[in-house]
Write a structure and sequence with these properties.
The protein is an all-alpha fold. The chain contains 13 helices and no strands. Helix 4 crosses helix 7 and helix 10 crosses helix 13.
């Protein structure tokens, strides 16, 4: 590289820890490090890795080479945990959906490790060692997940009551945009459309843009999310999953009483009866009501309902 390109390379690289320290400082001041602890750990780890890699970049290139691979591995792991943390914050009002998402994330992590292991064992490339190929594959899997979570938030934020100015959305947006750009750069590099040093410049430049976006989100005031009681469709998803996990017992008398009332009203269309109190009644109260009614036929029940209407 020429002197100008070397200066540009170092300037883009030095901007990383400067912006990361700024974001971490704002998070400490606004107590955001408690809510997004993995993101805070990610920022601090990146600053520490820069302090280890950069001094050895000129004098001990081999040491810096292996440190950069360790940095890539740790960054991919923390990036996965940060996206999961943002996902949990988005689904905070919906406990059942949040639990389902956590299970899906665990399976995604397991599949990612299996794919990386299979690729490392079956690779025939002479350019990279098998363990290096495994790290690259795992990192690309994490990037795909990051892009996917951003697309999910963009299309479903309205249903979840998430504002696009919220901090969790900003974290996911920064990772997702950078991940998408990095995947495009890698694909262009494989197709011989982009070469060094422009590949490194584009990669570092877009990462700096993500850092600037995170800094802006950390400085801005995050608006309150929309109340969960107004998100009717999300509430239906939550209730459906809750009913699947906790079905109504078979011996419950509430469905039996609902069926009796429905049949009675269907035989007498002119009768209107509100069944909400009966649906809300607890099961012991339903048993007491059944005992006080005694054995009634459907006709007698209709007559009593008609006399009280």
């Amino acid at each position: 590289m020429t002197n100008k390109t070397t200066l540009l390379f170092h300037a883009l690289w030095f901007a990383h820890p400067v912006l990361q320290i700024g974001i971490a400082g704002v998070m400490l001041r606004r107590q955001l490090h408690r809510k997004f602890k993995f993101f805070f750990i990610y920022l601090c780890t990146q600053v520490l890795l820069f302090a280890l890699v950069f001094p050895t970049y000129k004098s001990h290139y081999e040491v810096a080479y292996y440190l950069s691979w360790a940095s890539t591995t740790l960054s991919a792991l923390l990036g996965f945990l940060v996206i999961h943390e943002a996902f949990l914050d988005v689904f905070r009002p919906f406990h059942t959906l949040r639990d389902l998402g956590t299970v899906l994330f665990k399976w995604a992590g397991l599949v990612m490790l299996l794919v990386a292991g299979v690729v490392s064992v079956s690779t025939t490339s002479s350019d990279l060692e098998p363990w290096m190929q495994a790290i690259v594959t795992a990192e690309r899997c994490v990037r795909i997940i990051q892009v996917g979570i951003v697309l999910f938030l963009v299309f479903f934020s309205h249903y979840l009551g998430v504002s696009r100015r919220q901090y969790s959305f900003g974290i996911a947006l920064g990772f997702g945009v950078y991940a998408g750009v990095e995947l495009l750069i890698v694909a262009s590099w494989v197709g011989n459309h982009v070469g060094n040093p422009w590949m490194s410049f584009l990669n570092m430049g877009f990462y700096n843009l993500s850092l600037l976006a995170w800094l802006g989100y950390s400085l801005a005031k995050s608006p309150a999310r929309e109340g969960a009681n107004t998100l009717l469709q999300s509430q239906r998803w939550e209730q459906t999953l809750t009913d699947i996990h906790h079905p109504l017992p078979e011996n419950s008398l509430i469905p039996m009483f609902e069926g009796m009332v429905d049949r009675a009203l269907s035989r007498n269309p002119g009768v209107s009866l509100s069944v909400a109190p009966l649906q809300a009644a607890p099961e012991p109260l339903a048993r007491a009501a059944a005992a006080s009614m005694g054995p009634l036929s459907i006709a007698e029940l209709v007559e009593r309902v008609g006399s009280k209407s």
